[in-house]
Write a structure and sequence with these properties.
Blueprint: E1 12-14, E2 17-21, E3 36-41, E4 47-52, H1 63-67, E5 73-79, E6 84-89, E7 94-98, E8 104-106
Antiparallel strand pairs: 1-2, 2-3, 3-4, 5-6, 6-7, 7-8
Length: 108
Amino acid sequence: MSLLAPPKAAPVIVDNRKFLVVENGLALGLPQRTGYVAVLDVGTVDLLFILKIFDLPSVGDGPEASDRAAPVITSMSHDAERAALLLGTDSGAQYRIDLAGLGVTRVR
């Protein structure tokens, strides 16, 4: 087990929208700590919505239990050719956000 925190994914701006990883969903009243991307309007800095990228595995009761092995989004990049964002986690999973319909697909 590493004592170092995983690297944080840098925000990505596409079409006047800023996509950034939510570091602590519990602090925002969401049901899990990790697995979310917030979307902000660049001009107004208003929160437009939050996308749930993945569910955390059930590991017991309470917020501290869900933190035990919670994967973290560590990379995010824009794939202009596919009109998508590509995300990676510290556990090796990869996801794609379709920018047209905002659907999320696990790639690996």
